[in-house]
């Protein structure tokens, strides 16, 4: 029994830098997990979860940019085709 | 370089906006016939505008059937004609304004419309517009020209064809 390791089946921390933390499931860094709240400089230093390049989906950013572009496009159409081309006394020569 | 697929989407969107802006302006120039003010008006001597055949006696000149030339001198701080007496043009006519200045840079803006240009000493700005129904337009200087710039204003009267008469043209 004394030979049993501290961790079981990788669901508790493995120190960062360990080979198992490179591609495995989420592994919290045991040194940063405490009950004393956040202390400046006490952020987790280990890799919590490693994801691929395209696995990060900033959907909120995409939606914000889409809304922004729709507003810009609509304002341009209104400004040019309604306000400008629909305006009086346009210079034609 | 690996570009995230979302980034490709908004990059394409930004390019599409730019292409759209250029396309609409091109349509305005080619399809809708919007013209830019250029240097086709030529140059004059700002010190001797009084000797100029047209600017010496500014006003409305008939250039053809239903076509008129209006010569306007913008000076500190009035339009001549325009301020002390309104510029008069007939309704449903094509009018070319020739605007210049003997002193400093002024602006010539028909208020609330797309017609405006700078009036630069020595340079004649020409803009052609088509007037419709009889109405009145305000005229403003929209380039700061001195202490009374804010008071530099005038009026354009679009006179009904039935009331238009030869006394309203210089020539």
Q: What's a concise summary of this model?
A:
Chain A is mostly helical. Chain A has one helix at residues 59-84.
Provide a count of the helices of chain A.
1
Low-pLDDT stretches of chain B are none
Number of separate domains of chain B? 2
Largest sheet of chain A: none
**Number of DSSP helical runs of chain B:** 1
Write the layout of secondary structure elements.
The complex is a heterodimer of chains A (93) and B (171).
Chain A: H1 59-84
Chain B: H1 5-30, E1 59-64, E2 67-75, E3 78-80, E4 87-90, E5 94-100, E6 106-110, E7 116-119, E8 125-130, E9 135-140, E10 153-159
Parallel strand pairs in B: 2-5, 4-10
Antiparallel strand pairs in B: 1-2, 2-3, 5-8, 6-7, 6-9, 9-10
Verbal overview:
The complex is a heterodimer of chains A (93) and B (171). Chain A has 93 residues and is mainly α. In chain A, 28% of the residues lie in helices and 0% in strands. The radius of gyration of chain A is 28 Å and the shape is rod-shaped. Helix content of chain B is 15%, strand content 33%. Chain B contains one helix and ten strands; from the N terminus they run αββββββββββ. At the A-B interface, α1 of A face α1 and β8 of B. Chain B: Pfam families: COX2. Chain B: It is found in: Cell envelope.
Defining key terms:
heterodimer, A: mainly alpha, 2 domains, 1 helix, 0% strand, rod-shaped, B: 171 residues, alpha+beta, Immunoglobulin-like, 5-stranded mixed beta sheet, copper (chain B), metal ion binding (chain B), CcO_II-like_C (chain B), Copper_CuA (chain B)
């Amino acid at each position: 029994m004394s030979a049993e390791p501290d961790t079981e089946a990788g669901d508790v921390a493995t120190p960062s830098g360990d080979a198992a933390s490179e591609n495995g499931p989420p592994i919290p860094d045991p040194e940063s997990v405490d009950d004393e709240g956040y202390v400046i400089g006490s952020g987790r230093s280990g890799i919590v979860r490693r994801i691929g390049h395209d696995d990060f989906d900033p959907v909120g950013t995409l939606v914000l940019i889409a809304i922004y572009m729709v507003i810009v496009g609509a304002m341009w159409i209104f400004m040019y085709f309604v306000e400008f081309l629909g305006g009086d006394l346009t210079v034609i020569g | 370089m690996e570009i995230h697929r979302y980034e490709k989407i908004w990059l394409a969107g930004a390019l599409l906006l730019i292409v759209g802006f250029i396309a609409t302006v091109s349509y305005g120039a080619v399809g809708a016939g919007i013209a830019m003010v250029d240097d086709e008006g030529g140059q004059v001597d700002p010190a001797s505008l009084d000797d100029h055949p047209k600017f010496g006696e500014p006003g409305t000149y008939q250039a053809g059937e239903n076509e008129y030339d209006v010569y306007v001198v913008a000076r500190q701080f009035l339009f001549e004609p325009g301020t002390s007496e309104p510029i008069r043009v007939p309704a449903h006519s094509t009018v070319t304004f020739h605007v210049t200045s003997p002193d400093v840079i002024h602006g010539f803006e028909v208020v609330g419309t797309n017609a405006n240009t700078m009036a630069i000493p020595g340079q004649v700005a020409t803009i052609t517009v088509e007037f419709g129904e009889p109405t009145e337009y305000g005229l403003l200087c929209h380039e700061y020209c001195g202490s009374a710039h804010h008071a530099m204003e005038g009026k354009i009267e679009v006179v009904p064809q039935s009331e238009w008469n030869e006394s309203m043209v210089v020539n």
